[in-house]
Each structure stands twice: as structure tokens, then as C-alpha cells.
């Protein structure tokens, strides 16, 4: 099952991606000023997935992508795909799994996984 992953852009705005079961990014949202706006839009999308439209494009470099529309507003842009079949598989993954996917929040600046040095320092303090 895929997941919605909330993170921050370099300009400190928030965004989310939808990742496949294998961990590949399928689409990236627009920017949000506040984190809860991401969560609200994800929940709105999950509840209204049947209203989503996928506008397919072929870029100048020959790669395929889609813009995800919810109502009349653009919601997200997909990654680039080398073939139209792969693009269609990405869309199928969204339609199949998005409504029941979990939300992961990696937007805080705290380290999620400590590096080895931090673990060694912690072990020295404990001993």
C-alpha cells in the first residue's frame, strides 16, 4: 500500500508526495504554508478520489507525466515516466491505494534516525 509523505521544501513551505508500495514517488503536491493544510488536502483527496482527473502530457524530452486535478484546481504533478504504460500504472496505483494509504509526517527538523556517532556517544554516557 502507498503512503502520503509530508515534508518541507527548501523555502520552509510544506509539501506531500504519494509514494508507491515500492517507495517510488508517484506525485508531488503544490506548496503549503502550514502543515495542517497538507493534512486537510490529503484527507479531502482520499475522501473524493472518484472526483480526481488525470490530465496526461508528453514533455519535450519525450517523458510522460500527469497533472492531478481535484475539481477545477490542480492538486499535484506526477514524476516523469519513460513510457505511457508506466504512467498508466502510476495512475492505477493512486486509484487503487490512495484512499486507504497512511500519512507519514517527516516535516520536523529533528533527526529521525540517529547516526552512528550519536549512538556511540549515548553508549558512553550510559556506561
From TrEMBL:
Cross-referenced InterPro entries: YegP-like_sf (IPR036913)
Domain of life: Bacteria
Gene3D superfamilies linked: 2.30.29.80
Name by which UniProt lists this protein: DUF1508 domain-containing protein
Organism of provenance: Flavobacterium fluviale
Organism ancestry: Bacteria, Pseudomonadati, Bacteroidota, Flavobacteriia, Flavobacteriales
